[in-house]
Design brief:
Blueprint lengths: L10 E20 L19 E15 L7 E9 L3 H4 L17 E4 L2 E4 L8 E5 L5 E8 L1 H11 L6 E9 L2 E10 L7
Parallel strand pairs: 3-7
Antiparallel strand pairs: 1-2, 1-8, 2-3, 4-5, 6-7, 6-9, 8-9
Length: 186
Amino acid sequence: MSRRKHPPEDKHTHLAIKVDHCEASLETRIEPGIYQPQYAWDLDNDSPLYRTTVELTFGGVATYPDRRAGEAYELTIYGSHSDLRRSAAMVKDVQARDGRGSLKFRSYRGKQIPIYDPPSGMGLIDKVRGEPRWTAWLPVSPRFASDALALVNSGRSLFLGIHERQSNRAHWIQGLSLRTTDPAED
């Protein structure tokens, strides 16, 4: 008799990180793909001509949960107008499709409910091998990056709240908050 193996359950962790430093940069330039067509493979006519990016790198130490407390984190958020498809993505864009391209549904309590094929996460968190340190890079909307920069300039203590989902060996960011209060106290 063979036993059916179930895939391992995803593990969710809510991290609280006390930010101890932040580096910021702002850049604007003409879209390089119009000068170098070999790099314009995903450029379309609705792409902005001027690319503006805000990049913020936050460094800090985890305060929660206890098993990760004291570990260092470095998170870079990158806000740019150049990736309109990502920032304009809608829930309908991740509805699952069958082999013919038709939308998939399932019955639930007499209703047809959409089946979704969600992204794995917003970005990956990588463990630095042999060190109690983690790094992450996350594309965000330009508005989020600008609002984060305003919080950085507020002069108040900052905390990152990260909802992490571990699937197999990958650690995915499912959600991110930048706050002036410790998310561990929620």
